[in-house]
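Example 3.2
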Amino acid sequence: MEQLTAYLAKEGKKPAQFAEEIGVEPSTITRILRGERKPSPDLARKISEITGISVSDLRPDLYKGFVPVSPAAPEAA
């Protein structure tokens, strides 16, 4: 979880501080940082909202095989 590690370093926060901010146990963040656990979809969204890290970067497995749909092009008049 390199991006989250980089975010914490940039912000000068310890995993326990960040855990408190988002309302989870410090061990949850520690395990995520070690790669022992993946954040739940809800937790990934919460981390994304605070850090700006994309949910798809936090949980790429959720997007496996997902192809974004482009908005329909306006019809020519």
